[in-house]
Amino acid sequence: MAIKILSVDDEQDLEILLTQYFRRKIRKGEYEFSFAHNGLEALQMVLEKKDFDIILSDINMPEMDGLTLLTKINEMRNPALKCIMVSAYGDMGNIRSAMNNGAFDFATKPIDLDDLSRTIEKAIEEIEFVRKSQSEHTQLESIKSDLAVAGEIQQAILPRLFPPISEFADHVDLYATMTPAKEVGGDFFDFFKVDDQRVGFVIADVSGKGVPASIFMAVSRTLLRATGMRGTEPGECLTYVNNMLCSESVDSMFVTIFYGIYNIETGLLTYTNAGHNPPYIVHASGAVEALPFSDNIVAGMFDGIDYTQHTLQLEKGDSLFLFTDGVTEAFNPAGEEFDEKGLEQALAHTGSQPSSHKICQEILQAVNRFADSEPQSDDITVMAIKRL
Questions:
Q1: Helical ranges in the chain per DSSP H
Q2: b vs e for 194-230, b when ≥16 Cβ sit within 10 Å of the residue's Cβ?
Q3: I want to staple 360 with a disulfide (CB 3.0 to 4.6 A). Which of 153, 327, 344, 382 is the partner?
């Protein structure tokens, strides 16, 4: 596209000089000149066309001088529109005022057209840089908007209504929440009905952050939910999900998963922990007990792995608290981690017979108090399951 230049000067001879000197660039379509004879006429042309790239303006003109025109152009706030001011060599006071008020450059009369040509080329380079920056900014804004929508979609696929399974509400108290570190995250949780006496639940943490982690998260959740709702035992379920993830995994992504099936009648919990943080039991007495570390590796790295499962008996009033490492790896301004000790202390102070919602909120508040002004560096997900 041609660079559009508006020359503003009350001297008619300048129009002839410019069209003659730049005739080759005009013929090639590189430059396109328009002419105005005072600032007021130029301002009207700029407001009508709004596509000029360079304003080449004399300072001393009738009706509206160049400095006033420059002020009006600055009010349009178009960083890609460059003004080159022209005046007599002895008029340095006005030239200095023009430069202080945002002119890109200046030329003195009588105009050295070779020098003016170099000045225009320099302005064009600046215009191209500004336009490229504006284009990149627009793209970033578009990506930011897309990420915001993706974050809303991601939150929408997680359970948001509690109790998540209304017919089990008299037997088990379920609650969970996920706070991503970025617009989208790699953590997820889920609850689903397996049969009339059992509820499946999962908490997981995908390696990495951002868009790749969120996509891998969606795939992992879909596979696990579809397999678990068939009533498959946790060990067998994770074995199948792992093999499927390995066949589709890219960039060596993996996911830590704690998947369990809870019997609402007996309080028996059957679970498989694929490399996830060991959960805690908050006993009805208030005592806090950590489950053993997992003997299974993370999912999505090596296929052909047979995942083992274990059982756990929850007594009435007992709660199982699950979390992702965004909790224990939260940092404060001094660079200290919240760690497992901080979590255990926070769990011990959740009070007598707390609800699942209260346990989760108390832990999140404890993490926020500890982190103070330090920004969240990882997704934070918490879950609690209480036998009523």
A1: 13-21, 23-27, 39-49, 66-75, 92-100, 113-157, 210-228, 234-248, 325-328, 339-348, 356-371
A2: beeebbbbbbbbbbebebbbbbbbbbbbebbbebbee
A3: 382
Q: Pick the closest to residue 148 from 53, 235, 214, 198 (CA basis).
A: 214
* Cα distance between residue 274 and residue 259, in whole Å: 8
C-alpha angle with apex 207: 201 to 213, nearest 5 degrees? 85
Spatial separation of the C-alpha atoms in residues 96 and 388, rounded to whole Å: 80
Q: pLDDT, tens digit, for every residue of 136-171?
A: 988 988 877 777 777 777 777 899 999 999 999 999
- Report how far residue 267's alpha carbon sits from residue 311's, in angstroms, rounded to the nearest whole number: 10
Pairwise CA distance, residues 125 & 131, whole Å:
10
Model's pTM, two decimal places?
0.72
Residue 106 buriedness (CB in 10 A; 0-12 / 13-18 / 19+): buried
d(CA 149, CA 364): 25
- Residues 165 and 172: their CA atoms lie apart, in Å, by 9
- Between the two ends of the chain, the Cα-to-Cα distance in Å is 73
What Cα–Cα distance (Å) separates residue 248 from each residue in 154, 220, 274? 20, 10, 18
| Bridge-based pairing state of the strands 280-282 and 288-290 | antiparallel
Q: What is the DSSP letter of 306?
A: -
167-212 pLDDT, tens digit each: 999 999 999 999 988 877 789 999 999 999 999 999 999 987 777 8
